[in-house]
Amino acid sequence: MDILRGSFPRSARSAALLLVCCSVMSTSTAGAKGGVVTPPPLPVLSTVSFSPAIVAGGSPSTGTVKFGSATDGAVVTLFNSNPTVVTVPAETVVFGGQSSGAFPVTTKAVTSPTVVTIMATAFGVSRTGTLTITPATAPPVSDTVTITRALWSASILRIEATSTNPNAILNVHLTVNDSFMFTLTNLGGGRFQDQRPWLDNPLSITVRSNFGGSATKSTVK
């Protein structure tokens, strides 16, 4: 059970433990009848990549962890070889039914090209990716975010947005107090959307990109 303890968040460990226990019971029952039940293999972490992979110090990037197949949900631990130059979260989540997940990367100014290695670990498998930070010659350029739909109806909040950077991570915030609500799903081609149960009408939401762009829109019809 040490593997379960190290590979899953607390909420997922209980589900994983139940799955293992049920698998053991099924195997025992099948064994008594002469059969063997083999639990499905865990998805294997395949790559860690960055876009852009070469970035001027002070500008952001987006990291992506990818599995060889869709997951039932996975928490990927991230290790940064040079936190004085690059900042990444301690972990990122790949949601159930998905094979990849994105995480924001921020950088600081450097005086010479600096290569930083990010190691990702999940289910006992580790992969590394590198990000090259170069001296900046101009101020960072933000992407442009546009909210194409913001609608709350029947306790369901629907948000659609676009970004001029197709690799952006767009987070939805409650405008009134700037509290984080959720992250939009990247559909590709600079299009993003999501819908969530939301008890009360937020009245106004703000969508922010990790590349600097933002937009605000009312959720009132």
Describe the structure.
It is a single chain. The protein has 221 residues and is mostly beta strands. The chain folds into 3 domains: 2-32, no CATH class; 45-134, Immunoglobulin-like; 145-218, Immunoglobulin-like (Sandwich). Helices cover 13% and strands 48% of the residues. The strands form 4 sheets. It has a 5-stranded mixed sheet, with no helix packed on it. A hairpin with a 4-residue loop joins strand 16 and strand 17. The model is unreliable at 1-32 (pLDDT under 50).
Search tags:
Immunoglobulin-like; five-stranded mixed beta sheet; four-stranded antiparallel beta sheet; 2 helices; flat
Q: What would a concise description of this structure say?
A:
The protein has helices spanning 2-7, 10-32; strands at 45-51, 54-56, 61-67, 74-80, 86-87, 91-94, 100-107, 114-122, 125-134, 145-153, 156-163, 170-174, 179-183, 185-188, 191-197, 204-209, 214-218. By secondary structure, the chain is mainly beta.
The CATH topology of the largest domain: Immunoglobulin-like
CATH superfamily of the largest domain: Immunoglobulins
What structural category characterises the helix and strand content? mainly beta
Proportion of strand residues: over 45%
Helix proportion range:
10-25%
Number of strands: 17
In what order do the strands lie side by side in the largest sheet? 2-9-8-4-6
Give the name of the CATH architecture of the largest domain.
Sandwich
